[in-house]
Design goal:
The chain is of the alpha/beta class. It has 9 helices and 12 strands. Strand 1, helix 5 and strand 2 form a beta-alpha-beta unit. The structure holds S-adenosylmethionine.
Length: 272
């Protein structure tokens, strides 16, 4: 078989990087459950309006409108490519009435609109794109402005010693591919951090650098302090509990202290 045909016939050439990404790193159902739990705890009712900043393919918006007929969602991202993919693959399969309750804006998240929301979510560490305190503060001030008086913002964070090993790659196996999270470059002075996502297929073909992120590695206390500076009246850190084997159990509760963990994910919740 000629080489060129091999190149176009391989699994990597036929793969859709957004499908692989969603299967590897997204759990929109768990996010919506978490938003419900935290909002109910704070305000004693069900949240109805969601703004998903850095929404990419806006999987959370779609899950949100599916979860309740009175719910509406706004997705904001400045890249037209994931938005278009999300329209074709996440929005189109929804019922027409659900589709009507999703609005999309192709713009910078550093904008405050007329509409205010119960929940503002910024997931998968996306706000790490802002590398300085003034830049992150500006974003958090907009986020604060975009919330209802009874409203809260949810951001996720990662950390732990293992996240600081340069050139380390975390591999997770799926039935038909492997997901690779590469900690490519880490600068302990500036906290500049470059991460890559690669996919490897059973036929040996690869999608290298399917996604690349050039971020600042923020710490929890820095982000908590900036949220308070931006106006949030209360900022809580939700830490994951452990099961009998000491493994994360997927249940996050507000905690003031935690024991070191080599690789953790936590939520920061800012209450307006
Ligand atoms: C890590 S992806 C996250 C996608 C999705 N939120 C998720 O949970 O998987 C980051 C997204 O943020 C978008 N983005 C980066 N900077 C932005 C900005 N200033 N305003 C709006 N979107 C931005 C990128 O286009 C990209 O889709």
């Amino acid at each position: 078989m000629p080489k060129t045909k091999d190149k176009f016939d391989c699994m990597a050439a036929k793969a859709d990087k957004y499908v692989l990404y969603q299967r590897s790193v997204q759990e929109p159902g768990s996010e919506v459950k978490f938003f419900n739990k935290v909002f109910k705890k704070e305000f004693g009712r069900k949240p109805l309006t969601l703004r998903e900043d850095f929404c990419g393919t806006f999987a959370i918006c779609c899950e949100w409108v599916k979860s309740n007929k009175d719910r509406t969602a706004l997705g904001v991202d400045l890249d037209p490519e994931p938005l278009a993919w999300g329209k074709a693959n996440n929005l189109a399969p929804l019922k027409p009435k659900q589709q009507e309750r999703v609005t999309l804006l192709e713009q910078d998240v550093r904008t405050s609109g007329e509409d205010k929301f119960d929940i503002l979510s910024a997931q998968n560490f996306s706000f790490w794109i802002f590398k300085t305190r003034p830049a992150l503060l500006e974003y958090l001030k907009h986020a604060y402005q975009n919330l209802n008086d009874e409203g809260l913002m949810v951001m996720d964070m990662m950390g732990g010693g293992e996240c600081w090993v340069e050139d380390h790659t975390d591999i997770r196996k799926f039935k038909d591919f492997k997901y690779e999270w590469e900690q490519h470059k880490l600068d302990p002075i500036t906290h500049d951090a470059t991460f890559n996502i690669h996919f490897q297929f059973k036929d040996g073909s690869r999608l290298d650098r399917a996604f690349t992120y050039d971020w600042r590695f923020w710490s929890i206390p820095e982000v908590v302090e900036l949220c308070k500076e931006a106006g949030f009246s209360q900022v809580d850190v939700y830490w994951e509990g452990v099961d009998d084997d000491g493994e994360g159990n997927g249940i996050y509760t507000a905690q003031e202290h935690a024991s070191p963990d080599p690789c953790w994910i936590a939520y920061i919740v800012g209450i307006r």
